[in-house]
Amino acid sequence: MVEHVIEKLGKSPDFQHQHIVLGGKHVELFALSSLVDVAATVWRIKETASAESYTWEQLKWTLGGEEAAKAGDHVQGLLEGRALLFTANRSEAIWVQPLSQNLNRSINSPNNQNILISSQTGFIEDMMTNVGLIRNELRSAHLKQSLVLVGSTHKQRMLILSLDNTVDAALLADCEAAIRAHANEDFTSTRQVAKWLRQQPLWSPLPCYNRTESPHEACHYLKQGRIALLIEGYPEAIIIPVHLADLFILDTDLDLPSALSVMIIFFRVLGALIAIIAPAAYVALVSINPDVMKLELIYSIARSRVGVPYPSLTEALILLFIIEMLLEAIVRLPKSIGPAMTMVGGIILGQAVVEAQLVSNLLIIVLAASTIANFTIIGYQFALTVRLWRYIMLFFAALFGPLGIVCGLFLLLSLISNVTILSKPFMPTTAPRGGKTNR
């Protein structure tokens, strides 16, 4: 048994093998120092087993050890941060509770999600800590957990959370079955989860789950009958299934008066429509059907485009590509200089392209409004979907004018109404009542 452990891990610099005398018995301790505080663990073991004489069974009972009879589990257990104790003749072994290295960051507010109202705590990379944060928000015996180990060479822990008094039993069973059916696949990214759960074409840009870094928001979704998936090493919860309303409605909206909630939701819906339609409307009205506008507006647009050598579609694409590069630069640059660099770059580039007569002033206003409106959408994945559909609408408008905008919106609505996640529609026809979805 020991030979297999030494063969797999013996050459690693953090592999620790120590001889200890406990109660007159010689034992051997194996652990990884990168995961286990070996010195503190040895000291605690000696303090716990401080009697002069022990049998192996007495020692195992005193240390609270767990039988480690399967040799094939020894390497995986050490990689999970456990400590292995062998007898002197290496015929028997037990797992002992070690003192782990502090590898997790402290609980802080979410890094990528702004919370205006409610709890400011955010998930971290440790899965059990995240479960504790959810239990602290939702003290209910109805909270059920199901652990799934995914992977063949590397076991990734996934925890499926639900409230048994609100969740649809068929939805929960389908979710567990979909994940367990791929338990032998090595987990590399959350994109695999989307592949396992989706019941739609792979080319569809719509996400099949939502993400949140807020335990308060995760509990809100659980109360609605959703499923929360926690993955070890990911500081977020994956919410299954996702609904169209998640683009525009936050759980914190319920803390506001009804009139204010409706106003905020209205502006979010309006922002999504402006983000999708505004660039396409510019191209359609300038290139295909300028006659639908008032004469004064036609003259104003014509004056702003004097000297521009490109058609309106090329003009819009050039500026859109510049905006996309600026948005990516904001994400990639360090937080200390990213906003300043991109702001300066945007001002300089915007002024330069106008003075060089490569684009019109009106187009800059339209695309700036479209970009700002895109940020009103809740969720990064949804915002990316809107950014992608903006280009599709742009080409429809360039080909068919205002009719192309109508066709693009019809295609988008057809796609949304056809999407299902684990047999649940992306655009449900009824609202949840008391946590359960009534059909």
TrEMBL record:
Top-rank lineage group of the source organism: Bacteria
Transmembrane intervals: 265-288, 308-330, 337-354, 360-380, 392-416
Organism: Paenibacillus lignilyticus
Pfam families noted in UniProt: GerA (PF03323)
Family that this chain belongs to: Belongs to the GerABKA family.
Keyword terms, alphabetized: Membrane, Transmembrane, Transmembrane helix
Stated name of the protein: Spore germination protein
Signal peptide residue numbers: none
Keyword Aminoacyl-tRNA synthetase attributed: no
